[in-house]
Amino acid sequence: MRCKPVAVSCTAAALLLAAVLVLPLAVQRRQPDENGMYQQEGYWVQYLGERNEKSADSFVKKVNSIRDTLLTEENKVYCAIVPDKSHYLPDEGWPVLDYDAMASQVQAGLDDSITWIGLADHLTLTDYYKTDAHWRQENLQPVVNALGEAMGFSQDLSGWEQNVFEGFVGSYGKYIPAPAEPETLVYLTSPATEAARVDNFQYPDATAVYDVSKLSGAGSYDVFLNGATPLQTIENPNAATDRELVIFRDSFASSLAPLLCEQYRTITLIDLRYMVSGLVPQYVTFTDQDVLFLFSSWVVNESAMLR
Amino acid sequence: MKKLAITLTALTLALALAACGSTAGSSSSTASSSAASSSASSSASSSESSSTAAVDTSDLTAVMDALFNGIAEDQMPMLMPQEDGSKYAPLTEENSEYNTGVALSAYKEGICAEAAMSAQAHSVCLLKANSAEEAAKLAEDVAANANPNKWICVSAERTIVAYSGDTVLLTMSFNDLAQTVLDNFTAQFGAENVTVVKDEVGADMAMPEGDVTSDPVAAMPEDASGAL
Q1: pLDDT tens-digit readout, B7-28
Q2: Which residues on A lie below 8 Å from B119 (Cβ)?
Q3: Domain boundary assignment for chain A
Q4: Chain A CB within 8 Å of residue B76 CB
Q5: Domain boundaries of chain B, sorted by first residue
Q6: What does the CA dihedral B95, B76, B180, B113 come to, rounded to 10 degrees?
Q7: What pTM did the predictor assign?
Q8: 3-state DSSP call for residue B7?
């Protein structure tokens, strides 16, 4: 009769073991569509691929190399990586690039003279568009605060004018199966942005910080500094200081840079996806500018695109 | 009788396979866009106008140089010479998948010509397959994996993948420039020797404003150096 309790215990143990093995499968791993797209909590996300450690290592080497060969001892150098919105979504089985691991790897590899600025704690899901990869400019006060704390400035955006465009459908619109519901795009203006003049290498006629003619269709994010260009400089006659800033960047900086117009006399933006780094000295003389390397996790994970 | 039938059938099959596997290849196009038919016809006309290839087609640099024949200097994106003085960037373990969609280990060597300073999507790559027999598979893999949106914020208007012998061409660029590159590739190798495996117009055809093919910088700075 003693066998019965043992049998019950063994059965229970077996069931428990089976549950432990099967339970992780209950959060089924899901696959994005053929474009890498999926939707979660109303946000469209494009899967960036598995974390590529070699790419992140190459990114760090690129940053360190630029620091060593182009910059001076007087340049104050900073680096920050923008998380993808997927970083802020709960695990529902979709594949997500491990931003924390990527950021840790980059931070650990940077030259000691480069100050890491963590951005992850200063953003939330709602700070991103639903139909686009980018962050919302009007929500960047915490990011600006984090940059300011590290770089030595303070910029209050609360008094800036909010200009609202109602019909924004972002770059993911072409992948969305059904017509996407438009969202608002807000761009912030101040006397500094209105007085600023842009020298754009790709589009010499684009001299304004905001190109409102771009506010239609999938290219609306190009309202910020006229979109893709290898090199552009913002001259800010209303800046509070004579400080100068150089940003090695991707498109996320297009909506950030205008928010710094009151803090820097000139802001130079360099996009190494479209400009071979060997040409930079022909166009930019480094002296004592603040230098910020600001890239999205997408670019860090595919850093071969930086030339 | 039965044995004779089997032998004749086998012989017929062998002859048919030998014909299909000929290194001369064919000029059939499997493109999905209407641009394909125009490229095939223009390829034929190009080959008629230059029946003898003056280019050493075993030399990728020479082949690449000839791909840009007939393109006006102000229409050609400015290129960046490499630190060792070579004209075109080598495809490396680091950049191969980004530029071509396939790893360097899949082929012998390759070079890439991209604009040195432009936000307009333009990239021309030449790959040397490990052998002529492997070129078709390599071209198919490139066609399947090369990303005309690799720059993220800009996209190539047109993507063409073709091969001849052991040389594979990938061009992702403006429509007209891509056509010229294909025409020149065909002129070098002969229309009957070129197979186009992909000729696709990008879905995202947002064109930059202004003259999209002119390059703002007329000449390379004299002391320009290679990429860091």
Answers
A1: 555 455 444 444 444 433 333 3
A2: 202, 227-230, 271, 274
A3: 3-305
A4: no
A5: 23-201
A6: -20
A7: 0.82
A8: helix
